[in-house]
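Long-time lurker. I teach an intro course on protein structure, and each term I like to show students one example going from raw sequence to a predicted 3D structure in token notation. This year I'd like something fresh instead of my usual example. Would anyone be willing to generate the tokens for the chain below so I can use it in lecture? Attribution to the forum is fine with me.
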Amino acid sequence: MNSHSLEPDSSLSEESGALEEEVLETRQAPVRLDQHGLRLDKALCALVPEFSRSYLQQLLALGAVQLNQRVVEKAALKVKAGDQLLVEMRPTLQSQAFQPEELPIEVVYEDAHLLVINKAPGMVVHPAPGNWSGTLLNALLARDPGAAVVPRAGIVHRLDKDTSGLMVVARDRLTMDALVALIAERNVSRQYLALAHKPWLGAKTCTVNRAIGRDPRNRLKMAVVDLGLHAGKTAQTDFALLSGCTEGALVHCTLHTGRTHQIRVHMASIGHPLVADTTYGGHPEAGMQRQALHAFRLAFVHPMTGKSLEFRAPLPHDMRAACDSWGLAYGD
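-- Reply from a regular --
Happy to contribute to a lecture. Here you go:
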């Protein structure tokens, strides 16, 4: 999910751990008549059906594909019936991503079924383009060998790279399925602290009920959308002013839904983009160089023991320093 998404995390490919051998396998076959005129990457999918097209495109970029005994790299190249294809099944960065790495992670709670961690800002949750290593998933695989047999090493929701704070991680498949169900039923409670630009005016509390979807003008961003015109999902966030000044405000945020970038988008929509959130209208200030958002409270009923659990993580040093520089009270 995303910085504040409580949707189950289903984006990870199961294929990525499938190429562990250093010995290269070679596949070769002629282009069939029914493949005449196809893009090269689509033709390769028939030759290597167990892997995704994105993986095959990586092999093309590595120079591991030959067409009629010549190395080709253009995925959009059209093939002809009778052309000879050859693919070297090389390990790519993606295929080697799901490897254990000894990385520091702060565990605030642990039992036989689950972990609660306080994710540091700057740590990516799982491997993705541009970040195939150094992720929380890599750290979990190194910390607990049993994580290798749990999908996505037990990660059931996400925080953005630059968002800090609490996450719950399953240690076995039964617990993972139960946590996914809790999240889907909105029975996992999470609150955030956000440092926003501009003085807070008017009522100290407000609720934003605005649907969120892909920004029609920039597909790399999310935006408040009109569901009558654009695809999206309903989204609700409660905001409460904790402390304010002429430069900005420290705001308590409570999610009722878990959409991608929900807090960031909703805060920007009411004229208070997060400090240093350059994607949604913020800019670095008060020493903050990353979006000023922290998941400080996490609460849920343990899916295996039935015990009510609640955790709090204090503001990280950079957000504390920013609050101090603006004279904002943040408590403990």
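Some talking points for your students: The radius of gyration is 23 Å. The helical segments are 40-47, 53-61, 136-143, 173-184, 262-269, 317-326.
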